[in-house]
Write a structure and sequence with these properties.
Length: 67
């Protein structure tokens, strides 16, 4: 059962990384259209922190329901 938990954590981490990259690309594209390149990295970092915070509770809730 411990392997399932680590696999779930690995998949969640990969999903967060994927979403983070997509968000970064969207921010970059949006800023090019708007001509605003300021604070892009700050927004991406904040988005990543938010995604990590919300996902850190997801594996625990999944593990609790699967046991």
């Amino acid at each position: 059962m411990a392997d399932i938990g680590s696999e779930v954590k690995r998949e969640v981490s990969a999903g967060i990384a994927s979403v983070s990259r997509m968000m970064e690309r969207l921010d970059t594209r949006e800023n090019r259209r708007n001509g605003d390149g300021s604070n892009v990295l700050e927004r991406v970092a904040e988005d990543r922190r938010s995604a990590l915070a919300s996902a850190s509770s997801a594996p625990n809730s999944q593990a609790a329901t699967s046991n």
